[in-house]
Write the structure tokens for this entry.
Amino acid sequence: MLKQILPSLLAGAGVTLQVFFVTLMLSLPLACLLQALQQFSGRALKPLFRGYITLMRGTPLLLQLMFIFFGMPYLGLTLSREMSIYIAFTLNYTAYFIEILRGALSAVDPGQAEAGKMLGFSRRYIYFRIQLPQALRTAMPAIGNEVLNLVKDTSLIYVLGASELLKAGRSAVNTYATALPFVFVGILYLAMCGGFSWILGRIEKRISYY
Amino acid sequence: MSCIAENCAKTFGAAPVFEKVSLRVDPGEIVCLMGPSGAGKTTLLRCLCGLELPEKGTISLSGTVLCQDGRWQSPVQYRQKIGLVFQNWNLFPHWTVLQNLIKAPVHQKRMSAAEAEKKARRLLEQLNLAEKADAYPNALSGGQKQRAAIARACMLAPEILCFDEPTSALDEQSALEVTRIIQSLANQDGLGILVVTHDEQFARRTGTRLVRLSELQSNS
């Protein structure tokens, strides 16, 4: 039986990984940029950022997914399933990453920015080359948590009808009337998370050179 | 070529830190600013470096005005002429000593990377840090960090170099070394030096002029 269901499970895992990578590649850099914008804009944009973060953290990702895919068409904007998934996940994870970065940046000694100012570095240089690298090191464990959450959160996209890993497992359970596919699904999630934990550990070690 | 503060006043909230303070630092002199903790020495130093804005008075350096009566004038141009060695040095921990030295002049397009590295290695040689060029700051002792911070500030060839409590984290031997370096910067390179310190002994042996914050306030 494993032979029969494995291809569909692996295809599902492929979709899961695709959502995972696209979300991560978009949301982490976006969070770095938006946090810079928030820092440089002073008070002007603060309420906007607070509103966005409150909305993203205060409502379920499932609702956000459904709103964008099923709700937006009523507002005159129809998005493809993939587009809806990427937008919802990126918006949601960017909000969490911004908050993680904000915390980590406040842990960077303010003397670092002052030293940068005295040496004539631009504000942009101070943020991206002095504060952010130090903040990312502090933030790595928290970012790692979010990365593993993201692997598992991708299972939510089955509500939009996407055939990711969990959905593939469920249809196998229905087809073969056995709980075993769920066990395989669990093993695949574990394997993915295990792999990413290992990579995260390597990155953490790599950036702890000083 | 002199750094001049005239009638400066700074308040934090409702409490005045200092009022009507005037100070002048000329090339080649070593001014030691003394006074008890909490008297506002460091705040005055931060004002002179453009890290704090005094509400009143004027601060200028060889014609470049930093601020006037609570408004910034040319802070960027001003800061190019003044250097600061922080109390805790504020070296950038993720860069090697050499990178700490060369990034600023290259970023400001004052030197090519090769020129900057050449100058940095010469400075490190002079300060006995040549073998630490590729080390990260956390691997340095207090005295070595101090010298690295001095070298970093000197890369930009300031007219005035300020020190905030340079001996507070150093042992006797390193403090003597700092005296020697400061005197050589003033005598040989003609820098104006302003040192904020509460180390009386250090100030007496290092400074050409000792001033107390209370003496700088005019009562007119």
About this structure: The longest helix of chain B spans residues 172-187. The mean pLDDT of chain B is 94.
